[in-house]
Amino acid sequence: MSHDPNPFDEEEVNPFAGASAPASKSRLPTLASKAFGFGNKNDATVDIPLDTVNDSNKRERELAAWEENLKRKEMDIKRREDALRGAGVTVDEKNWPPLFPIIHHDISKEIPIHAQKLQYLAFASWLGILLCLSWNVIAVIVCWIKGGGVKIFFLAIIYALLGCPLSYVLWYRPLYRAMRTDSAIKFGWFFFFYLIHIGFCILAAIAPPIVFHGKSLTGILAAIDTFSDHALVGIFYLVGFGLFCIETLISLWVLQKIYTYFRGQE
């Protein structure tokens, strides 16, 4: 039995030797994984929801179906137009006015050369009544501002809203088609309603005091009446009177020219 001379002398312990070495080696992977962020409970994960993928695929399918439907409709319209052309039916594409096409109008291509001049004159007559009715609205607005009353303004609006489309439907378009097809019925339709158009222009140029003292139309009598109250309103009405007079003269000339053309075609 050995005897320790100094039982209180502490044994020197090497912390880097003995059994502690394998333990430190075993902790290296754990420390490395923690240093690089692997193996933690709070690791960030990228979750891609299946609903998002499904929605994306659904949108792609809907877009493809919409494009397919649009192509099918375009082919159907083209097939119908080709069928109409094959049957001898003309398809009138809207092309006038250029910025906002609302009607079909192509004198140089659809009207015979010997009748194009007359058609251009009739077209100028139709544009003339549009100008007259538009200026009539402006002049009546000036009169209304100067105390002329709101009733004449509403009447001027009604004249413009009815006169512009009706003049095209009732006499200009029938003449256009009559020139294309030499249809006597369409010529007769044109003559009847064009005479009504000329009568309206004469009435507007005179503006007799029958509806609100005639101030809803810029005729000579209304111009004289307004001059006594407001000179500016009278000037606007005189300009309107001049426009209606010019439109009446042009319309009478167009009527005479087209009637001569019609009699020569008989």
TrEMBL record:
It is found in: Cell membrane; Cytoplasmic vesicle, Secretory vesicle membrane. Pfam families: SCAMP. One of its GO terms (cellular component) is plasma membrane. It comes from the Eukaryota. Residues 1-26 are annotated as: Disordered. Probably involved in membrane trafficking. This is Secretory carrier-associated membrane protein. It comes from Canna indica (Indian-shot). The lineage of its organism: Eukaryota, Viridiplantae, Streptophyta, Embryophyta, Tracheophyta.
